[in-house]
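Hi C.,

You asked whether I'd gotten around to modeling the 144-residue construct. I have! Everything is below, sequence then structure, no commentary in between.
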Amino acid sequence: TTLALGVVAVALGIAFEKQNIAFMVALAFAIAASANFPVLFMSVLWKGCTTRGAVIGGFMGLISSVGLTIVSPSVWEATLGNPAGSALFPYSSPALFSITIGFVGIWLFSILDRSPQGEKDRAGFKAQQVRSETGFGASGASGH
């Protein structure tokens, strides 16, 4: 796995060598935000969030952000060498759209989740909220 990831990293580094590094970092943050922010926000603040909704919504944000990044002008045209104006997604950063897709995915799959685990997730929200905000009910330190 390490060798495969190293090869992929080198190949991507060669492919993106002419890109502005600050812009590439912004794209990486957009992808990370699309996968993580909706899950963190909804799991902490919405009592209807379930594990199934969080997992599916997080993956929807991740997949949509990577897909939209690839078909954006910054990658589709500048890096992959396709003709100007041929990009399928007109914006250089996907975050506005892919984060929204993540939120909608979490909401939709949480309200559709009628499994026993989903009911358990909803029932445990209040205790989890009190524990996360005050520390009451948390167990003591553990020896790892």
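If it helps when you're writing up: The two ends are 27 Å apart (CA to CA).

Thanks,
B.
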